[in-house]
Amino acid sequence: MKKFLCIALAVVLTLSMVAAFAACSKDDSKETTTAATEATTTEKETLVMATNAEFPPYEFHQGDKIVGIDAEIAQAIADKLGMELKIEDVQFDSIIPGVQAKKYDMGMAGMTVTDERKESVDFSTSYAKGVQVIIVKEGSDIKSKDDLKGKKIGVQTSTTGDIYASGDFGEENITKFDNGAMATQALVAGKVDCVVIDNEPAKNYVKANAGLKILETSYIEEEYAICFNKENPELTKKVNTALEELIADGTVKTIIDKYIKAD
Ligand code: GLN
Questions:
Q1: Interatomic CA distance for residues 30 and 117, integer angstroms
Q2: Per the structure, how many domains does the chain have?
Q3: Per residue in 1-27, pLDDT tens?
């Protein structure tokens, strides 16, 4: 009987120790969570990204959120750096001036690297390829870039489509719009004969409007990258290193493939 009591006591003791231990570790984990939450709200540095969220699938509105390839890559970069991402939706042509004025830490907007832009901002490693394409109405007599002479060309202001088409065919033949959707609407309405714009948004606009097509021959191929203020090499390096790691481990590809399905 004595022996039995001893064993019973031992069991009760062990059980209460286990319970006490469990309670302790629960408390510990509560503390860790609270500390982590505090870090999120008070300690995280902000990474302000400027974009123009009219450029699907790179950036667009979904409800009250800005989503897309750039938004997700930027979030992955911010997570890696322990920073809080803040996205500012502005006109495409105010992204570079805003980065130069240090209003934003970086610009990420399916932005093409050009020699001219390199004089104003620094660029990251390229994370995606872009192609300038030509959208026409089905049955159009425009079959390739060579047929654009004397045609009314719609573009998005200050984009490479604008820059190249203005250079090649003269400003007088170019009509500039705030975004690609507006340029495409002008094409549907017959106000322009074609739109020169990036391939991926072009696919979205053509899908959304019956009677349009993208020409098989492209206008030019380009590289997308993130732009930074030239006087902030530490941040540029930090973000670029994170980006390169995300390219190397396949995260960037996974994000791109999520939004761009193979044709
Ligand atoms: N890739 C083009 C450029 O950099 C267009 C980008 C955009 O419209 N967001 O000019």
A1: 49
A2: 2
A3: 455 444 454 544 454 444 444 444 444
130 lines ligand 1 (CB under 6 A): yes
The verdict on whether omega for the bond into residue 57 sits within 30 degrees of 0, i.e. cis, is: yes
Residues 110 and 179 in one domain: no
Using most ligand atoms within 8 A of CB, pick from 51, 70, 95, 112 the residue to mutate for ligand 1: 112
138 and 215 inside one domain: yes
- Residues 120 and 142 both lie in one domain: no
Domain span at 189: 131-221
CB 122 within 8 A of CB 243: no
Same domain, 137 and 215: yes
Residue 121 lies in a domain: yes
Taking each helix axis as running N to C, give the angle between helix 180-188 and helix 199-208, from 0 to 180 degrees, rounded to the nearest 10: 50
Task: Name the DSSP letter for residue 146.
Answer: G
187 and 109 fall within a common domain: no
pTM: 0.82
Mean pLDDT in residue range 30-56: 71
Query: Ligand 1 atom closest to Cα of 222?
Result: 1
pLDDT digits (tens, 9 = 90+) for 132-187: 999 999 999 999 999 999 999 999 999 999 999 999 999 999 999 999 999 999 99
Please tell me the distance from the alpha carbon of residue 112 to that of residue 221, in angstroms, as a whole number: 10
Beta bridge partners, 197, equal: 133
| Together in a domain, 247 and 120 | yes
